[in-house]
Design a protein that fits this description.
Mean pLDDT: 96
Order of helices and strands: EEHHHHEHEHEHHEHEEH
Number of strands: 8
Oligomer: single chain
CATH class of the largest domain: Alpha Beta
Low-confidence stretches: none
Shape: elongated
CATH architecture of the largest domain: 3-Layer(aba) Sandwich
Largest sheet: 6 strands, parallel
Strand order of the largest sheet: 5-4-1-6-7-8
Number of helices: 10
Helix content: 40-55%
């Protein structure tokens, strides 16, 4: 039976993400002319973010980009103070960092070349499309920034729901909101546990994107653009 609904993971599936928060903070500070002890500054950032991550998870439950943006502003202010950067420079540092993620010249995130062409064909063929991603509230910003948001009826960020893949709960709540049954849905992702096993445990079919492969053969996809033909 052909699926009625196709859900997609985002990072590694639709968008190539090379974001390391500590490295980004350090590289941005150095590009602004600040000289830092690389090891100490990186370790400080990782330690501070690790300690605050449970709070960030809680903030995501509010589903507010503004609330989460405030978290990163405070985090940046405190890191700057800790490593000797004037806090008056923290806003500019954060702006530069965000530009590398979401700006016109973004180099830490980019959509895969096969993503939008595949989505166009699938939408035109009448499939209902959604995103299920282990991501924070900025998932929606990323999808908007790279022009992918209009293809999806729904985008589910795990941190907004308080549950992550491979838990079947995240797949089931997505299907509930779409009014679809597991047997009517197919999930596509790049992680064999989070995506393939997670989807199957939820009663869905799954496909695993692996762009290192030469050809697509179930359950693998070498290119997202091979999916429409595999569906028949």
């Amino acid at each position: 039976m052909r699926p009625k609904v196709i859900t997609f993971d985002c990072a590694g599936t639709l968008i190539d993400v090379q974001w390391d928060p500590a490295r980004l903070a350090l590289e941005t500070a150095e590009s602004m002319g600040f000289e830092l002890d690389t090891a100490t500054a990186s370790e400080t950032y990782r330690r501070m973010l690790g300690a605050r991550w449970p709070h960030f998870r809680e903030l995501n439950l509010q589903r507010s980009e503004a609330v989460c943006d405030a978290f990163w502003r405070e985090m940046t202010d405190d890191w700057c103070s800790a490593v000797g950067i004037p806090t008056s420079a923290s806003a500019e540092l954060l702006d530069h960092a965000n530009a590398r993620l979401f700006g016109p010249e973004a180099d830490l995130m980019r959509p895969f070349d096969d993503a939008e062409p595949a989505l166009i064909v699938l939408r035109e063929a009448g499939y209902r499309l959604a995103v299920i991603s282990n991501w924070d509230v900025s998932l929606h910003k990323a999808l908007r920034r790279f022009g992918l948001a209009p293809y999806f009826e729904l985008a589910i960020a795990s941190l907004e729901e308080g549950v992550e893949k491979p838990e079947a709960t995240l797949f089931h709540l997505t299907l509930d909101r779409l009014g679809a049954l597991p047997e009517e849905a197919l999930h596509v992702g790049d992680d064999p546990v989070d995506d393939l096993t997670g989807a199957r445990n939820a009663g869905m079919r799954g496909r695993l994107i692996d762009r290192t492969r030469a050809d697509s053969e179930s359950p693998f996809l070498a290119r997202l653009t091979d999916l429409p033909a595999m569906l028949g």
